[in-house]
TrEMBL record:
Residues in coiled coil: 333-364
Transmembrane regions listed in the UniProt entry: 312-333
Domain of life, source organism: Bacteria
WxL Interacting Protein peptidoglycan binding domain location: 29-147
InterPro entries in the record: WxLIP_HBD (IPR021759), WxLIP_PGBD (IPR010317)
Protein name: Uncharacterized protein
Keywords: Coiled coil, Membrane, Signal, Transmembrane, Transmembrane helix
Length: 368
């Protein structure tokens, strides 16, 4: 029995244990900005530039390699986007931009050396040229200079995740002090799926050339039939980039979302009490739930019969099957061993009886 338990434990360990290498975060380089002569506020750590139409200028960064080896760095000029967590992100180079973004940052900013090698314990100066559009604009153009280090040969050989540090230096460009009236619109609400969960996605647009932050953000989904709140999500310090459209998800576990008539209400509030209350009615159908729960890896309803499509469930079933097979083999072996022991005992008993009869015959011969 002990051998059986040990065997199954080892079997499960082999199935579930996968060694990974996690490299600890080490600050092996840094990125510093050089203050531009066109900087509006020299106390700010990011580039806050006041430029003119048709103006051409350059801003500069310094990459400092603090490691003992030469490293390769990648530098890109990326536009400001709004992520699904309602934060501003600068990590996507050349993304599809919103139609309201007239002058995407990556179209006016050019990194002169997008790939650069920096020797150990040395620094290199990086130039980013900015060419302003001919037409004057109101509001801001927001972007960031993203710097990352190439993985070393040793890191590339490692399995699992390798943590590295990347830097973003923000760039905010304006031409005047014209006040922009911010807007926020809720375009549509629809059912979808992401990362193994069924979601209700709200598509939201900031069509104005001004960022909205910090926002107090609340999303409420209400069942229109019962007027009961189905789900509510809140967060503080939300940020929306200028001229961006983003998808805000509300996640549901398998079986949680029901078909019906709903309303999505999103409330966004600035510290100065300016507030947007966005509402949109939408329907959720049985067909949509079945489709997206199947894609998310739940129970796919095929001809009203549940078909398991979740890889995790497949894994659990596989493990359970393997345990049953191993247990069955061990049971058969044990049963055969028991049968063999019974046969051996029977043979031993018969041999003892034969030996006893032999001794009795010899005793009778001696008496005669």
């Amino acid at each position: 029995m002990k051998k059986t338990n040990v065997f199954i434990a080892l079997f499960l360990a082999m199935l579930f244990f996968h060694p990974t290498h996690m490299k600890a975060l080490e600050q092996d380089y840094s990125v510093n900005t050089e203050i531009s002569e066109f900087q509006r506020d020299k106390e700010k750590s990011y580039f806050d530039l006041r430029l003119k139409p048709n103006q051409v200028t350059s801003i500069f960064l310094s990459i400092n390699n603090m490691s003992e080896t030469e490293n390769t760095f990648y530098i890109s000029a990326n536009p400001a986007l709004t992520s699904s967590t309602v934060n501003i992100s600068y990590n996507v180079p050349n993304p599809k931009t919103d139609a309201s973004m007239k002058y995407p940052f990556q179209t006016i900013a050019k990194v002169k050396t997008p790939t650069v090698k920096v020797p150990p314990k040395q620094s290199k100066r990086i130039e980013i040229e900015i060419k302003m559009p001919a037409e004057e604009f109101d509001g801001i153009i927001l972007g960031g200079i993203h710097t990352s280090r190439e993985l070393t040969d040793e890191e590339k050989k490692q399995s699992g995740y390798v943590n590295t540090i990347s830097y973003v230096n923000g760039v905010c460009i304006s031409e005047n002090d014209t006040k922009i009236k911010p807007e926020l619109t809720l375009n549509k609400v629809e059912v979808s799926q992401a990362n193994g969960s069924i979601t209700v996605n709200s598509t939201i647009t900031n069509p104005t050339a001004i960022n909205l932050s910090p926002l107090t953000w609340k999303a409420t989904m209400t069942d229109k039939t019962t007027n009961k709140i189905v789900k509510e999500q809140k967060q503080g310090n939300a940020m929306i980039a200028p001229n961006t459209t983003f998808t805000y998800p509300m996640k549901f576990i398998t079986g949680e979302l029901k078909s019906g008539h709903y309303q999505m209400k999103i409330t966004a509030t600035l510290p100065d009490k300016r507030e947007w209350v966005l509402t949109k009615d939408f329907d959720v159908t049985v067909k949509e739930i079945e489709k997206y729960e199947a894609q998310a890896g739940g129970l796919a309803m095929t001809n009203r019969k549940p078909t398991i499509t979740n890889p995790l469930l497949f894994g659990i079933i596989g493990v359970a099957s393997a345990i049953c097979i191993v247990g069955g083999i061990l049971f058969i072996i044990g049963k055969k061993r028991k049968k063999n022991e019974e046969v051996e005992n029977e043979i031993a008993r018969e041999l003892r009886e034969i030996e006893q009869r032999k001794r009795e015959r010899e005793l009778r011969r001696g008496e005669s």
